[in-house]
UniProtKB/TrEMBL annotation:
The gene is LOC101498493. Its main location: secreted. Keywords: Cell wall, Glycosidase, Hydrolase, Secreted, Signal. GO terms for molecular function: polygalacturonase activity. This is Probable polygalacturonase. Belongs to the glycosyl hydrolase 28 family.
């Protein structure tokens, strides 16, 4: 198991305590009228700047792409000297895509709104992801995300519930009319990076996926309110993709696609890259997504998915709970998945596994590459107003095995189908306290609880420090 490497934590926390003590008496107002404030983060910064120092105009109309780039380029010089933080003050800051740097914090104050530009020339193009082999919307390249980072160490995007608004309607319209020649931008994408914190923000109307860490490790995503119309295309909330050691906690998501989708690459491309997503803890998630899953595993899972734990999950008017999606040609595995504690209201499928998800990157997929789906444990589930209790569909000659369900009470909707469970090509067990009575492939074997790991993931042991912004630290 990887262990988190959160830098010179001891040294930096001592410095931050000194800064806090120093700021108690003097809460000064500076030229940019920002008083000093504290916030929790994995690492604190020695240097600070305010976006307006770089000529930014917060009128919602002026493009600030140059200001963001100039600010971050300047602050990148302090990466090896205690790092730097960039404060985005109240205002509407229109911008195209910009890149983050290492040992850096982007802090959005309350009433700060970053607005995604609708001018395509403000979005650089990037090559396709190696584990996907093509873009999700079109075969060629893709637009860089609104906030992008690659090969970084220690990067934080946080705030006092400031907002990032992707103004996605422009992109959704083009996508629906099949006019996209490149794949739409994501809101935040961080690649090949270590030590990432994204917290306490409101993210709205992403052009496509909202938060996409890929080929990265030691990631905390906490306290996000993510909102998109439930009809908007592919607006997944949080998609850890080929990532290790991930904590996703206290998030509220309303979206047009999966609230959380755990991924690891697509067919032969994902198999070749071979980077699993593993050691993930998701807790206290609330999801509303009428046409998608609360938590999806796949369908791009060709690098493997293992050791995913989900606790205290609430979903309302959501199509399914924890859904496993795969297909012939994907290869890879989904194993050691643990779900404990779900409260569900109005749902089509509580348990849903799919073995024929279709959608291939191209015709080059290997029909002999079968996914190995095994050891999936669910317990403590209460669901109301449900259409199907379980639709569990494995792959013939490649059954999904080791499925365990305990302590589950599903109240079927008035219009419920005659058959609450439909299982094919799966095997496993259920305990006697599962209602309605499960399918024959999941026989009830008396009273027991499906095991849940008792250890803590390394990412769960990371402690936040109290960091501080002080106008006297400008540059
Ligand atoms: C951001 O980084 C990507 C990948 O390295 C690069 O292609 C792009 O030009 C960079 N954007 C800016 C504004 O520097
Ligand atoms: C953050 O803002 C959103 C949108 O206004 C709101 O729904 C949410 O409750 C706020 N979160 C906190 C912690 O104040
Ligand atoms: C987020 O905000 C909440 C409420 O204001 C605060 O308790 C928490 O420490 C903050 N956490 C992070 C990681 O920003
Ligand atoms: C039950 O679910 C149906 C949709 O399947 C919905 O129209 C109805 O409002 C729900 N009823 C309650 C009491 O939540
Ligand atoms: C699937 O994975 C499990 C657990 O790693 C292993 O025991 C089993 O042999 C694998 N099955 C196949 C068909 O490879
Ligand atoms: C059960 O599921 C299988 C496979 O998805 C499907 O072919 C079959 O029609 C379903 N049976 C019922 C009664 O819905
Ligand atoms: C799931 O729970 C069952 C019953 O407690 C247990 O036998 C099995 O080992 C558990 N699976 C994993 C992957 O721990």
């Amino acid at each position: 198991m990887l262990s988190p490497r959160f830098g010179n934590s001891y040294v930096i926390s001592v410095i931050s305590i000194v800064l806090i003590l120093g700021s108690v008496a003097e809460s000064r107002v500076v030229s940019s009228k920002i008083e000093s404030f504290d916030y929790p983060a994995i690492n604190c910064r020695k240097h600070s700047a305010v976006l307006t120092d770089f000529g930014a105009v917060g009128d919602g109309k002026t493009s600030n792409t140059k200001a963001f780039n100039a600010a971050i380029s300047k602050l990148s010089q302090y990466a090896n000297d205690g790092g730097a933080q960039l404060i985005v003050p109240p205002g509407k800051w229109l911008t195209g895509s910009f890149n983050l740097t290492s040992h850096f914090t982007l802090f959005l104050q309350k009433d700060a709104v970053i607005l995604g530009s609708q001018d395509e020339s403000e979005w650089p193009q990037l090559p396709v992801l190696p584990s996907y082999g093509r873009g999700r919307d079109a075969p060629g390249g893709r637009f860089s995300s609104l906030i992008f980072g690659t090969h970084l160490t220690d990067v934080i995007i946080t705030g006092n519930n400031g907002t990032i608004d992707g103004q996605g309607s422009y992109w959704w319209g083009k996508f629906k009319k099949k006019q996209m020649k490149l794949t739409r931008p994501y809101m935040i994408e961080i690649m090949y990076s270590d030590q990432i914190q994204i917290s306490n923000l409101t993210l709205i109307n992403s052009p496509s996926w909202f938060v996409h860490p890929i080929y990265s490790s030691n990631i905390i995503v906490q306290g996000l309110t993510i909102l998109a119309p439930v009809t908007s295309p592919n607006t997944d909330g949080i998609d850890p993709d080929s990532c290790s050691n991930v904590k996703i906690e206290d998030n509220f998501i309303v979206s047009g696609d999966d609230c959380i989708a755990i991924k690891s690459g697509w067919d032969e491309y994902g198999i070749k890259v071979g980077m699993p997503t593993q050691h993930v803890i998701i807790r206290r998630l609330t999801c509303i997504s009428p046409d998608s899953a609360t938590i999806a595993l796949g369908s791009e899972m060709s690098g493997g998915i293992q050791d995913v734990r989900a606790e205290d999950i609430t979903a309302i008017s959501t199509e399914s709970a924890v859904r496993i999606k795969s297909a012939v040609g994907r290869g890879g595995f989904v194993r050691d998945i643990f779900v404990k504690g779900m409260n569900l209201n109005t749902m089509k499928y509580v348990f849903w596994m799919t073995g024929a998800y279709g959608q291939h990157a191209d015709e080059g997929f290997d029909p002999k590459a079968l996914p190995n789906v095994t050891n999936i444990n669910y317990s403590n589930i209460i669901a109301k107003n449900v259409t199907f209790a379980g639709k569990l569909e494995g792959i013939s000659n490649d059954p999904y095995t080791g499925i365990c369900v305990s302590n589950t009470n599903i109240e079927m909707a008035a219009n419920k189908k005659k058959l609450p469970w439909n299982c094919t090509d799966v095997s496993g067990v259920t305990s006697s306290d599962v209602t309605p009575q499960p399918c024959a492939l999941l026989p009830q074997k008396g009273k027991f609880e499906c095991a849940y790991p008792s250890d803590k993931l390394a990412i769960d042991k990371v402690q936040f420090k109290t960091c501080n912004f002080k106008s006297s630290n400008l540059f």
